[in-house]
Amino acid sequence: MTSEEQPQTEVGESVGQQLRRARERKGLSVAEVAESQHLRPSVIQAIENSDHRQFDGELFLKGYVRAYARQVGLDPDRLIADLDRELEPLRREREKQQESNPLVDIERRRRRKRRIAKALFLAMLVLVGGLLAFRFLVESPSPGEVPVPREETGEAQPSESGMPDVAEPEPDMNGAEADADRDAPAPVEPEEPVVVSEPLSELPAQEGSPVAGETAETPVDEASAQPAVAADDASDNIADLTPRLEMSFQGDCWVQVSDGEGRRLVAALQRRGDRLEVSGPAPLHVVIGAVDAVSTIQFQDAPVDLGQFPVTNNRAEFTLSP
Q1: Which of 86, 100, 209, 218 has a Cα-to-Cα distance from 3 of 20 to 30 A?
Q2: Could you tell me the mean pLDDT of each successive run of 10 residues in the chain, 322 residues long?
């Protein structure tokens, strides 16, 4: 009868009570468990008392519970499933707190602005495409406009035919007038090369003037380009002076990064596929809650080997400096 009642009481017990009961059966003290897990005794007591608010994130808590369960001989997966049910009310409470958090509100506004910007960009593309298509259709010649050049040529023909009619009375001039007309071109003939030479002399000057303009514009472009290049080099040098940390993740992982001035650059849960980029004054103090969830980590564009840092319960804490 007692053997049947004991499982029933264990089912109703919390995860912390189950771990405490298993520890007592093993004859271990809280200090011994804490020492083997490299944790403070207060952390073990918080787990046994189901005081989940003492932990920054679920990843740390689940890692501690899993290691504790292995030490006292309990099934870690079953305890994690029970722990998920116990954490559900706390999750809802934290979600409500996050909704009222101004940082969450700011992040939502940023996402909303990004969606609006994408929609405006697509609308601009559609508008520009429509304007280009409309302009192409309007400027393309229509079949009804083809006869217009023919009418212009037809109007020009009478003017050409009328020119000989105006010139016909010239043979009816008197002999003296004809002689005068024949003599008049004689002094004009030497002047014709002079008149022709003037446009010829002007053509090289006109052709040469754009060349001079082009040569004058070239140093101006080079002079204006030099400050822009200098400004880009200065901005690149300033960016290189600030240490930069880049991380990518293949699983859920809590990450906290602080700079050399004590400011917390990030302290959040990263999901699978996320990419984190932070920069700040050196040195950077990094805390990783799940080392196996980190896909890549680079500091100053150089890969960082996590194997050189101590890892306890899949948790690593280290400092990076240039």
Answers
A1: 86
A2: 40 84 92 91 90 83 91 92 87 75 74 93 94 87 56 48 47 47 48 45 43 43 50 54 90 93 93 93 92 92 91 92 86
Residues 91 and 6 in one domain: yes
CA gap 63, 22 in Å, rounded? 18
Determine the distance from the C-alpha atom of residue 51 to the mean position of all C-alpha atoms in its chain, rounded to a whole number.
Answer: 41
Q: Which domain holds residue 47?
A: 2-98
CA distances from 289 to 17, 20, 267, 315 (A): 25, 25, 11, 5
Residue 76 lies in a domain: yes
Q: How far is Cα 31 from Cα 28, in angstroms, rounded to an integer?
A: 8
| Greatest distance between any 2 Cα atoms in the chain | 157
Task: Flag whether 137 is in a domain.
Answer: no
**Domain boundary pick from 241, 257, 292:** 241
Domain membership of residue 108 (yes or no) is no
Alpha carbon dihedral 207, 210, 213, 217, in 10-degree steps, equals -140
- Taking the alpha carbons of 292, 298, 302, 308 in that order, is the dihedral positive or negative? negative
Return the structure tokens found at 77: 């997966």
Burial of 32 (0-12, 13-18, 19+ CB in 10 A): middle
Q: Is residue 130 part of a domain?
A: no
Q: Is the dihedral of CA 306, 310, 312, 317 positive or negative?
A: negative
CATH number at residue 56: 1.10.260.40
Note if the pTM is more than 0.70.
no
| Domain total in the chain | 3
Classify the C-alpha dihedral 75-76-77-80 as positive or negative: positive
